[in-house]
Amino acid sequence: MSLEIILLIIGLIIVSILAAIAGVLLYKVRKQNQAQRLLLAEKEQAIREQRAHINRSIQILAQASQSEDLTLTEASIRISVLLDSLGVGDDVREEFSAFYQLRSLTEHIPILDGWKKLSRKEQMQFDLQRMKHEASYRDFVLDAAVRIKGREF
What we know:
Elements: H1 3-66, H2 72-85, H3 90-95, H4 97-106, H5 113-116, H6 120-148
Helix pairs in contact: 1-2, 1-6, 2-4, 4-6
């Protein structure tokens, strides 16, 4: 055999090995891309489900505030926090500013363990403040609760 044929055979073997390696790597890249697309689709679905759950919670809170199952302050705090968690724009925050304003006026009032640590007198003072703010904002908050019904963010 001549040197040219041997070099040609060696060249063909090298090209075949490189082509096989390239094929294996291409297969691995495609599998990885498929896995990433599947993972992304699952994450997007989870985000859609979470947003739907938050939207349902907002609707329930709005209804509860209208039926007085929940104080206007608690409804305002919860709704504004949920709206923020959805990343709503300034236009939505402005449209439902009643919730944000009442929350802002009452955010100094301790909650949970902080509330329990207060004396009865302090609790009554904070309740009186809260009720005054709720009375001032009642129509404003209830109107926002009516307007938020059926909305999806």
